[in-house]
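Tutorial sheet, problem 5. The two components below are modelled jointly, 511 residues in total.
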Amino acid sequence: MTPYVLGIYESRYFWTHLAFSDLRSKWRRSFLGVAWSIVQPLGLTILLAVVFGKMFHQNIVEFAPYILSGMITWDFFVATLTGGSLSFVQADAYIKQYRHPLAIYTLRTTLTNLMVWMMASLSLIGWVLVVKPQSFGWCWLAAPLVFPLAAFMAWPLATGLAYIGARFRDLPHALTLVLQAMYFVSPIYFEAQMFRNGGLGALLDYNPIYHLLEIVRAPLLRGEWPTAANFAMCVAAAAFFSALAVVIGRSAERKVIFYL
Amino acid sequence: MTGNGIRLDKVNLHYSLAAFKERSLKALITGAFAASNARPAVHDIHALKNICLEIGPGERVGLLGHNGAGKSTFLKMVAGLYPISSGSRYVQGTVRSLFDLSLGFEPDATGRENILYRGLLLGLTPKFMRSMEEPIVAFADIGEFIDYPIKTYSAGMQVRLAFAISTMVGGDILLLDEVIGAGDANFMQRAKARITKLIEDSEILILASHDFGALRDICERVLVLHHGEVKFDGTVNPAISEYKELTGASA
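Model answer (structure tokens):
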């Protein structure tokens, strides 16, 4: 196990380079370039906020950052997990030439999407500062913790999926379905209170996505510190997914090259 | 002498091909109507059989064998890319391998960028690669194209650049698999000189080749592989006659 982690550290130049090069190629020859990662969620948020605001008679200005925070976080997971499940297939040219720990290729996907998410967050911060400046305070210091916590949840999960995805190419399609289901049972667009009112509180309390979102939403939207339970659930989920990845990887790591 | 070396004991290697069996819905439905022997079954391939050998410092070893005898598999097993299914594999020393040279280029990035990327893939630092950039550009000698995206390159140019990068740094153990196919005559000549230098700098060389002349020039020990087994292990000339006999018999 230790040599494996050491291998990830030793190849750090390689995977950071891969992540940055993914970002570059994503925006190559586009006029707005990296600004798209801010414009895209912002545009969709405005659209949704107007529609939802009319439908549910909610205050658009207050409701919009709620949607935006949910959407950019969820986008990170969808992109990392669906992209991650094909990470090894995508990196086959490297895997066939040089023996790096395979987890660096899912780490690459995770990092790329993490950076996109960070950029998208700028629009959220800007919006909140304009419409709800009263929530600004010390508790905002807790919000950036969402990035490492989410990364350590998504990376092992993507790694586990990539082992399976290398062999079973049905996985990305099935995953899209599962993620869509997850999205409906998570408070991404709909307010958490709506779940509780409907007697579906368990969908929040045992849902790591809810707790992860609270780490951003509590400080930015309500000016409160996230609770210890929020952090505990995220760490527990990260530990669980890591254990899962280790269990799958123990037998799958060496065989992946045969399936590419 | 350092402790670099290779020790293989009863090494077996199976290619796992289970994943390539058709398990699709389409295959299931068409299979129900087709004759039962319509599709040949896919079995795991026993690519290396019970290989026991030791290669010490200073040895220059050639690999000889028909297509599919297991030469490339042997090299990739030594490089640690393919997992062995039983036995023990012990390799001490940094391994540098030249297999599929033009794999792993990023087509949208320029030649210069790809020099850096390739170096990082090989586990080198960005600082070191920047210091190596000029010699690599000079050796590849593809003019202004070095600043163009790789996808604008001809096949020959890609090979030249790949070769220039991959041969810039040597290792204790050098694995060569019938390298250098493309490039014009002038480049071939410089490539040969470069390979010779790499070989001289390496402590152990394993070269898979069908070129008897190259084997005679470079190697003093040759392994003849036949259907995954080591049929002969000894000096060059007897190995070549053994190989001729084996392929002549099986042809």
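Marking note: The interface with chain A takes residues 15-17, 19, 79-83, 97, 99-100, 103-104, 106, 108-109, 113, 116-117, 120-126 of chain B (CB under 8 Å). Full credit if you identified this.
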